[in-house]
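Weekly sync, protein design subgroup
Attendees: M.S., D.O., the rotation student, P.L. (late)

Item 1: inverse folding check
M.S. brought a backbone from last month's batch and wanted to see whether the design step gives back something sensible before we order anything. D.O. pointed out we never logged the input encoding, so this time it goes straight into the notes. Structure tokens as presented (485 positions):
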């Protein structure tokens, strides 16, 4: 019982999380090819029909490639980590990071996705980044595919809609496993794999207007990703003994709006549809509840002989996820709607919301951790959590982001409660330890970082880095192993 009262274990991995397409910039440097993220243009808020501008049509791709479509593409520019990684990693080290989550941009290694040979300049860049991290004793946590499908695979195969992409992915995975086998222990196969159901282009380079049957194409593409993930897990365990492979879900814990059985049943269904992805990854088989969903939606998955065995034999070592908010669902069409990062629901009167309408629910994190651990009995890893907000730079250059500190403090406190509940939690990487380009809106004004980057939504600024109040707060949290919040 003594250990159960300690809270965060001594080897707990504190750090921050990023994605190459939102961070690196240098989209055409040193032989890098175009990726799906390089096609996403910035749309000013006044011109948006909703808060997501990430799904791209076939016609739009052709307009962009021909030069007919004129726009800014902020994810091509990022915040120039490509040239400033030493400065940024030094700041992470100053905060005391134990781990840094980043992604390898597939098109930096294989510019077209299926090239005969990898791009040495791309491989060397990540060598340099990993070496810099190790200089400070920071463990890399690497995502293989974080919304960065090489555009060449979209043009040739319609991305993950085609089974041919499995071989392209596993070859890429094997290449980086062998290259970095002495530098990277923790890996993730796909970022927020459930994105495929919301934006197939973002989740898998799939241009959905090229598909005859949208749902069929989405779930077939997901099957290809599940098989690829299992094969990559097999390769990792063979190439790097003692390594750890995780899956990653955008977890959307939801509540029934009332105790009306109709609401409760809808809530059960919504949670099942979200957990379906981790069920396959962690349990190694399709859950039975999906049989009815597939039948009612005329979805017939094409599986090759041996696919089910591959899924069963090569499950992930840990389950990772993003957590920003919870949802409340109602079977009634009435009720005020609430916004979300990927999903929506009805407004929860017991919760406050961020400036983007996301409902803030620290206790929901504890609920979710317990639910996930009870379901899978595998170690869990929170690899995204944070508050997007407008930050004000004072006349003296200081940034007083007490709202961000409050958000993180409450969530970390609930993480400790979950650990005391018996949940095995590996670590915590807050989303965007440095300001970066927003995934859903390509904004810079929606900031998450402990480190401010001087760049605005229109691409103006010096890119200079400065510390917010939260920088110094998080440093104390890490130094005290979560005891000082």
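Designed sequence read out in the meeting:
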């Amino acid at each position: 019982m003594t250990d159960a009262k300690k809270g965060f274990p001594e080897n707990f991995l504190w750090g921050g999380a990023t994605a190459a397409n939102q961070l690196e910039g240098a989209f055409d440097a040193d032989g890098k090819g175009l990726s799906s993220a390089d096609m996403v243009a910035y749309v000013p808020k006044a011109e948006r029909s909703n808060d997501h501008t990430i799904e791209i049509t076939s016609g739009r791709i052709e307009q962009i490639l021909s030069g007919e479509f004129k726009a800014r593409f902020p994810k091509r520019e990022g915040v120039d980590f490509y040239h400033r990684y030493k400065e940024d990693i030094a700041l992470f080290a100053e905060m005391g990071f134990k781990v840094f989550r980043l992604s390898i941009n597939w098109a930096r290694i294989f510019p077209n996705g299926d090239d005969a040979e990898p791009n040495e300049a791309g491989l060397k860049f990540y060598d340099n980044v990993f070496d810099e991290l190790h200089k400070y004793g920071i463990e890399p946590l690497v995502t293989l595919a974080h919304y960065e499908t090489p555009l060449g695979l979209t043009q040739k195969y319609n991305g993950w809609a085609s089974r041919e992409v499995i071989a392209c992915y596993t070859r890429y995975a094997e290449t980086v496993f062998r290259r970095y086998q002495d530098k990277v222990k923790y890996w993730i196969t796909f970022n927020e794999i459930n994105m495929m159901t919301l934006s197939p282009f973002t989740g898998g380079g799939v241009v959905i207007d090229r598909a005859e049957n949208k749902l069929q194409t989405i779930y077939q593409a997901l099957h290809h990703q599940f098989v690829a993930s299992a094969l990559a897990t097999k390769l990792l365990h063979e190439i790097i003994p003692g390594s750890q492979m995780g899956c990653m879900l955008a977890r959307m814990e939801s509540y029934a709006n009332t105790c009306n059985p109709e609401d409760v049943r809808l809530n059960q269904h919504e949670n099942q549809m979200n957990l379906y992805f981790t069920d396959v990854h962690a349990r190694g088989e399709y859950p039975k509840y999906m049989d009815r969903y597939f039948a009612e939606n005329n979805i017939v998955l094409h599986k090759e002989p041996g696919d089910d065995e591959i899924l069963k034999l090569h499950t992930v070592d840990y389950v990772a996820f993003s957590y920003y908010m919870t949802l409340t669902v109602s079977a009634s069409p009435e009720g005020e709607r609430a916004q979300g990062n990927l999903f929506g629901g009805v407004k929860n009167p017991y919760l406050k919301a961020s400036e983007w309408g996301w409902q803030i629910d620290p206790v929901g994190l504890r609920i979710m951790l317990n639910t996930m651990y009870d379901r899978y009995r595998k170690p869990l890893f929170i690899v995204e959590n944070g508050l997007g907000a407008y930050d004000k730079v004072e006349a003296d250059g200081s940034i007083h982001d007490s709202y961000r500190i409050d958000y993180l403090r409450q969530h970390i406190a609930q993480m400790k409660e979950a650990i005391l509940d018996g949940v095995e939690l590996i670590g915590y990487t807050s989303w965007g330890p440095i300001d970066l380009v927003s995934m859903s809106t390509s904004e810079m004004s929606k900031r998450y970082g402990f480190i401010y980057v001087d760049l605005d939504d229109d691409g103006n600024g010096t890119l200079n880095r400065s510390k917010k109040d939260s920088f110094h707060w998080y440093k104390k949290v890490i130094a005290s192993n979560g005891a000082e919040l």
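Discussion: The two ends are 24 Å apart (CA to CA). The mean pLDDT is 94.
Action: P.L. to compare against the previous round before Friday.
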